Amino acid sequence: MSSIVDKGKQIVEEILEVYPQKSKKDRTKHFEIADEELVNCGTCSIKSNMKSRPGVMTARGCAYAGSKGVVWGPIKDMVHISHGPIGCGQYSWGTRRNYANGVLGINNFTAMQITSNFQEKDIVFGGDKKLEVICREIKEMFPLAKGISVQSECPVGLIGDDIGAVAKKMTEELGIPVIPVRCEGFRGVSQSLGHHIANDAIRDFLMGRRELQECGPYDVSIIGDYNIGGDAWASRILLEEMGLRVIAQWSGDGTINELGIAHKSRLNLIHCHRSMNYMCTTMEQEYGIPWMEYNFFGPTKTVESLRAIAARFDETIQEKCEQVIAQYMPQMEEVIRKYRPRLEGKKVMLLIGGLRARHTIGAYEDLGMEIVATGYEFAHKDDYEKTYPDVKEGTILYDDPTAYELEELAQRLNIDLMGAGVKEKYVYHKMGIPFRQMHSWDYSGPYHGFDGFKIFARDMDMTINSPVWSLLPSQQIAEVSI
């Protein structure tokens, strides 16, 4: 075993030493140090998709967040009701930066938050009647809304409200789909089950229920891209330039109709495997639609993915694919020449909800940066099996790490950049460690595709090489760290 692997194991062991014996034994299972055998064979031994330890700070979200905040919320021509107390509704309001075309409040409702605002009397007597009133009000206030989803919060499940019966009644009365989504936050161990519940609702109420007037040999669907900062648009540009027709986007800048016609695709292209793989496998089983995962972070992975996608089609698409690559690569080489000398050798640590903990590795490496530690909030076994081939020997991998573990790792690894969610951002600022918000791009983006890489490179340089870090006294950093 190499010295770099031994060093990683020692660091993890020292960090976990502060826990009681039982907690230490449990948390040890959630760490792995990439060695040559692990990188080559990809066998997963790290524990994942398990309950967080009680009493520790976890970065995870809940099933409601996975459904409302990720899968359903970006569908722009529907109104999504946060059914329950106001707290969860506030959490879900416009936090994901899901860009969408349209006029807000007319045919685009992504940045709006509708909540049933449960009170004590609703807990006691039930909220079904209140939900009916809200659905009628939505139909009156937003006549162009194509549908309504009911995203249930914890109390709704605890008191046993029958939102399915209400949704069925309102669908008949209002003449638009009203879809119940039983995504109470207590379900499952993280937001991952919320994705699955949301996918099941799409399957049961929308998938395969609409018809596409004209089908073509080059029809594809973008699955699991939520258009953060315009990501899906940057990806769509490349797919259309190589001759493909995108008939559906699930679900960033997507519509209820697109959910119903995706079964007409010739190929499903999935970006976020964790949140939407259920839908791709379902469409493959029921409609025979093949699917493949792609990665449009950084020019290296984008080129690999474009060629892999083109290989699923005829020579016409393959030739156009090479033309697109030839068109953009001089621009990418120019970006790398500009920023790589400023970022070469910088050490990066990541904690990201779903796919980005592995998908972004190539983009950092295109800029000469090194991933020294990475992991997920809510990954499953297959996520780690896909991650191992992309990391280098000695990389520390972790599942659902605590705030303490992350801070200790960041200091012991002497990292130059932390990439995580908004909950972690200001802690690392106080520690004097440059930070990028890698869930919604820190008010920037897009990061996907060739256009996105220009912005990604600029943002990493702007963050790491900002003069502000030299103004933070080292003594203050030490005190905050302690």
TrEMBL record:
Family annotation (InterPro entries): Nase/OxRdtase_comp1, Nase_comp1_asu, Nase_comp1_CS, Nase_Mo-Fe_asu
Enzyme category, top tier: oxidoreductase
Reaction equations catalysed: N2 + 8 reduced [2Fe-2S]-[ferredoxin] + 16 ATP + 16 H2O = H2 + 8 oxidized [2Fe-2S]-[ferredoxin] + 2 NH4(+) + 16 ADP + 16 phosphate + 6 H(+)
Pfam families reported in the protein's UniProt record: Oxidored_nitro
Keywords: ATP-binding, Iron, Iron-sulfur, Metal-binding, Molybdenum, Nitrogen fixation, Nucleotide-binding, Oxidoreductase
Cofactor: [8Fe-7S] cluster; [7Fe-Mo-9S-C-homocitryl] cluster
Cellular component annotations (GO), alphabetically ordered: molybdenum-iron nitrogenase complex
EC number: 1.18.6.1
GO MF: ATP binding; iron-sulfur cluster binding; metal ion binding; nitrogenase activity
Physiological role: This molybdenum-iron protein is part of the nitrogenase complex that catalyzes the key enzymatic reactions in nitrogen fixation.
Cited PANTHER family: NITROGENASE MOLYBDENUM-IRON PROTEIN ALPHA CHAIN (PTHR43457:SF1)
Assembly description: Tetramer of two alpha and two beta chains. Forms complex with the iron protein (nitrogenase component 2).
Protein name, UniProt field: Nitrogenase protein alpha chain
Organism: Paenibacillus brasilensis
